[in-house]
Write a structure and sequence with these properties.
single chain, about 250 residues, alpha+beta, 3 domains, 11 strands, elongated
């Protein structure tokens, strides 16, 4: 973890790491916090328009070629601001100018859509991720996931993803607030069902395997395909003595 003094220093460190190929991923958190050197050295009330945008534009011109020749992925985290005086259209904007929007290969918009609670206590967030730009795959896809605060299961909830995909692919049935897998009732409500999956890893692995097969991520077991290698092996066993006789 590096905490540079200025935005220029942060981007110079990023460029050096990219060119070194020493790391696989670099995360800059955040673009809005990249303060130009002139702003730090100036007075508190100085008006310095466009400094951050020029900094990002110059840095990305240098970084783009280096990133393309390296095996490093660079992730820029940004924040939302609101334009003043916008009556029509979306008032939201992102700091740092437009250069990052143009140079980026993938842009993902993350928004909190719900606070997950258990007995009025916040235990996590429901987040929607929307791909607003994509040069490497189809754009404008979106998905939702849970981010949990619990110390033992902090981060993105794998069990929550299994429930969502299972219901979508009809591997898991949802009737009202109840979730069921076949004849087995997982629980009432998402959190209880997620807890049941955490407590039963064998069942969770079985559901995950079925979801992967249903979504085409792994090939489904094929009886004919399994039989073919066996027939081929028997054929080779029958042919082996004949080859020995020829020798």
């Amino acid at each position: 973890v590096s905490q540079p003094d200025t935005g220029e220093q942060a981007l110079e460190i990023t460029e050096a790491l990219v060119r070194s190929n020493a790391v696989d991923v670099i995360i800059i958190d955040s673009v809005a916090a990249l303060v130009p050197r002139a702003e730090i050295e100036g007075e508190m009330g100085d008006s310095l328009p466009g400094l951050q945008a020029r900094l990002m534009s110059q840095a990305l011109r240098k970084l783009t070629g280096a990133i393309a020749r390296s095996r490093t992925a660079v992730i820029f985290i940004n924040q939302l601001r609101e334009k003043i005086g916008v009556v029509f259209g979306n008032p939201e904007t992102t700091p740092g100018g437009r250069a990052l929007k143009f140079y980026s290969s993938v842009r993902i918009d993350l928004r909190r859509i719900e606070t997950l609670k258990q007995q009025q206590t916040p235990i996590g967030l429901r987040v929607r991720a929307k791909v607003v730009k994509n040069k490497v795959a189809a754009p404008f896809r979106q998905g939702e996931f849970d981010i949990m605060f619990d110390k033992t299961h902090a981060g993105i909830s794998r069990e929550g993803d299994l429930l969502d995909m299972g219901v979508e692919l009809e591997t898991i049935k949802k009737m009202g607030s109840f979730f069921s897998y076949g004849d087995l009732r997982l629980g009432q409500g998402r959190e209880n069902s997620k807890a049941y999956l955490r407590e039963n890893p064998t069942l969770t692995a079985e559901i995950e395997k079925e979801i992967r097969e249903a979504s085409g991520l792994v090939p489904k077991p094929d009886a004919e395909g399994d039989a073919a290698p066996k027939d081929q092996a028997e054929h080779e066993e029958q042919r082996a003595p004949a080859e020995e006789l020829v020798e």
